[in-house]
Structures are given as C-alpha cells and as structure tokens.
Amino acid sequence: MLCPFCSHPETKVIDSRESSDGKVIRRRRECLKCQKRFSTYEQLELLNFTVLKKDGRKEDYNREKLETGIKKALEKRPVDDKKIDEIVDEVEFRLQQKGNCEVSSKEIGNLVLEKLKGLDDVAYLRFASVYKSFGSADSFKKEAEKLSHNS
Ligand SMILES: [Zn+2]
Questions:
Q1: Is the pLDDT reported for residue 101 higher than 90?
Q2: pLDDT over 80 at 27, yes or no
Q3: pTM value?
Q4: pLDDT value of residue 53
Q5: Which of 4, 30, 68, 150 shows the greatest Cβ crowding within 10 Å of its Cβ?
Q6: Ligand 1 centroid – CA 37 distance (Å)
Q7: pLDDT on residue 2
Q8: What is the pLDDT of residue 35?
C-alpha cells in the first residue's frame, strides 16, 4: 500500500473497522514517512467482471442488481432474504471459479435457475420467464411442464 501523498511504501494501520454487514473493512492508515493519514477500503470477494447482455451491451457486474432480480422472483414466496444472499454467494463463487473476466447474463441466469430449481418452483418460473425471455406462451408452458415432470 503506497502512501497517496508521497508514495512511500510503508504505512501503519492505526484503526480497522468492519462495515455492519462485515463485507467491507475500512482501515485508517498513517504513512511512516510523511505521517499523513488516509483510509483504505477492502472489500471481501470483490468481483470485477463484465456482464455481456443479450442485446450485446456490456456492463459491470452488480451484485445488488442480481439480488433484486432474485428478490422479485421470490416475492411473497416463503423464502427468506438470507437464502437470497446464499444464492448470490454461490453464483458469485461459481463465476469466480471460471476465472473469466467476461460472462454472459444468460450464464448468470442459468446459475441462478439451478439454485431456484428445487427451492421454489414459482420463483424458478418467474425468474426463467425473465432470463430465458420466452418468445411465446408455448415455450413458457413447456418450461412449466418440464418442471412438473422433474418434481
Ligand atoms: Zn507519505
């Protein structure tokens, strides 16, 4: 960690604090050379990759956005928020393992679907209808049938 003021490589940590959700650690540091103080933020599991969307656009991966999508699918379903966190954690873990810096939204959608399958059928169908963007009522029906065969 270089001092942002004088680029000296040695700093000492004078205070360290976790955010309320425990995911970000804020460190107060002091440069050993110029004694100026600055903060660093360390995020656990920082995911830094690009999502390739169906229409060809690219955007930075955004955990909150993914969470929102899953929450929508699970609206009024008997599944608590903790489970949503777990699903997102698991999906992120799988994406990290692949080690690509670019991933398609379809791929992310499929990982989520894998998780929703068996957890909540209604949520699965809701999510599938968004992510697979069924072209017709027919293909939606097919998916619903596939699901009832599996369970
Ligand atoms: Zn300095």
A1: no
A2: yes
A3: 0.60
A4: 86
A5: 30
A6: 8
A7: 85
A8: 95
- Domain boundaries, given as residue ranges, for the chain: 11-43, 50-150
CA of 15 to the centre of ligand 1 (A): 17
CA of 16 to the centre of ligand 1 (A): 19
Could you write out the DSSP letters of every residue in the chain? Answer: ---TTT--S-EEEEEEEE-TTSSEEEEEEEETTT--EEEEEEETT----EEEPTTS-EEE--HHHHHHHHHHHTTTSS--HHHHHHHHHHHHHHHHHHT-SEEEHHHHHHHHHHHHTTT-HHHHHHHHHHHTT-SSHHHHHHHHHHHHHH-
Question: What is the 35 CA–ligand 1 centroid distance (Å)?
Answer: 6
Question: To which residue do tokens 């928020």 refer?
Answer: 81
Distance CA 1, CA 57 (A): 35
* Ligand 1 centroid to residue 14 C-alpha, Å: 14
Residue with more model confidence, 137 or 14: 14
- The rounded Å distance from CA 132 to ligand 1 centre is 52
Which tokens go with 148? 């009832």
CA atoms within 13 A of residue 62's CA, in its CB half-sphere: 8
Ligand 1 centroid–CA 27 distance in Å is: 16
Calculate how far, in angstroms, residue 10's C-alpha sits from the geometric centre of ligand 1: 8
